[in-house]
Amino acid sequence: MNAAGRLGAYAAGLAVVFAGSFAAGGALVPYETVSAWKQQAEDLRMDQHPADRQEEHPAPAESPEPADTDDDH
Predict the structure, then answer these.
(1) What pTM was computed for the model?
(2) C-alpha span between 30 and 36 (Å, rounded)
(3) 15 vs 1, 10, 18, 24, 47, CA distance in Å?
(4) Residue 17: which of 36, 50, 39, 9 has the closest Cα?
(5) Any long-range contacts for 36-45 (C-beta under 8 Å, 24+ apart)?
(6) 38 vs 31, 33, 41, 49, CA distance in Å?
(7) Between residues 67 and 5, which one has the greater pLDDT?
(8) Which of 5, 28, 54, 71 has the smallest set of CB atoms within 10 Å of its CB?
(9) How far apart are alpha carbons 72 and 49 in whole angstroms?
(10) What is the pLDDT, as a whole number, of residue 45?
(11) pLDDT category of residue 21 using cuts at 50, 70 and 90
(12) For residues 9 and 2, what is the distance between their CA atoms, to the nearest angstrom?
């Protein structure tokens, strides 16, 4: 089998694995669980305040103005 055939078989195998995983996830995880996860994530996002995040990660110091590099000597 040449390289193109092997790559094609590999890509087809990956497609089957990903499609199977997607189908299994939809069948195994109830919709209510996903809704609860989404609500919890939204609640956490709403609880964060921008001022709190700025204190944890201060803005970088401003860089000085670049030196004049004109060669008009």
Answers:
(1) 0.44
(2) 10
(3) 20, 9, 5, 14, 39
(4) 9
(5) none
(6) 11, 9, 5, 19
(7) 5
(8) 71
(9) 52
(10) 83
(11) very high
(12) 11
